[in-house]
Amino acid sequence: MKLPAIPTFDEAAESAARAHLDQLTKPPGSLGKLEALGAWWCGATGFPAVAPRRAALYTFAGDHGVTAEGVSPYPSAVTVQMVRNFLAGGAAVNAFARHYGVELHVVDVGVAGPLDGAADTAHARFHARRVRAGTGNMVQEPAMSRAEAEAAVAVGLACAAASDAEVLGAGEMGIGNTTAAAAVLAAVAAMPGKLVAGRGTGVDDAGLARKVRAIDAALARHRPERDDAIGILSAVGGFEIAAIAGLCIGGAARRIPVVLDGFISTAGGLVASVLDPACRPYLLVSHRSAENAHWAMSRYLHKEPLHDLDLRLGEGTGAVLAMDSIRLSCRFMNEMATFASAGVSGRD
Q: What is the extent of the structural domain holding 193?
């Protein structure tokens, strides 16, 4: 599929930001990852740092046929129920977004249940972009066709192109999607199911074993090529994972940084990096997921997660936290005095 061109990350601006940080009235590097965050932001958007006034989180929702294999303790009906909860303002991500002033957009890209009532479609930030009502069971058939995978990526591209925000976040909702995300990682990194599968929303040992078997069986059946992102999505992906990949590429093409959330969201970033590695510098991994294989995704993206709060909810909650950290890093870069301006002695 045709993707938009991505500009080169501005390493000179990032270096200038690092030099500026070292002149502020503090020991060099004493604000840790927040300093690296501010320098990264400048590399993506330019130096001096300008804090994002408008931040938008896109929570993409989709269902997964692999739930038929007993990989989740929750029924698929929870996906549509939680989408309605988002629209009613009652989920954790709603509270986070309200607190930090982040616009929450909810995108139906592959929900299996009905979302056609007035209370759903009338919501100003609900986007009905359903490609199909849930994926196929990857163990028995491809999760989607290649055309459907491209259509789901295009949903994310369109969201990035239409947004007037200065930073984008990628959230998700979909029962069974930790299995799909783990399968995507297994396909990209050539890892077996036992190394990528985690407990997700809380499966027991038997459920975890079913996840491992489902991932291994699906990859053995479809054998996607590691460098074929659309083929991986088609074989074992999710519509929300594909849309997140599109958001990553669409944001990077406009020099708008994209903040990834947890395990599933980072899988979308992983797919985006296979589609076009040039998007990678514009991505931020907001936090270290409690899913045990998230480290492998982060390493593949050459990213160090910003926060480590034992989060495993998803929805975009961790991404919202990181967006506020971006604002904070810009604020101290702009408001702190330098050693020279404050008349404070620097290091000998």
A: 55-328
pLDDT tens profile 292-345? 899 999 999 999 999 999 999 999 999 999 999 999 999 999 999 999 998 888
**Both tokens of residue 101?**
């002033």
Give the three-class secondary structure for 285. Answer: strand
Q: Judge whether 296 lies within some domain.
A: yes
Residues 16 and 136 in one domain: no
Residue 312 lies in a domain: yes
Residues 330/38, Cβ–Cβ less than 8 Å: yes
pLDDT in tens, 2-26: 999 999 999 999 999 999 999 999 9
Which structure tokens are listed for 308?
């480590």
- Nearest Cα to Cα of residue 70 among 168, 194, 209, 191: 209
Q: Is 35 a catalytic residue?
A: no
The pTM for the full model equals 0.97
Q: What is the CATH number of the domain that holds 145?
A: 3.40.50.10210
- Determine which one of 35, 150, 291, 315 is catalytic: 315
Residues 240, 184: one domain? yes
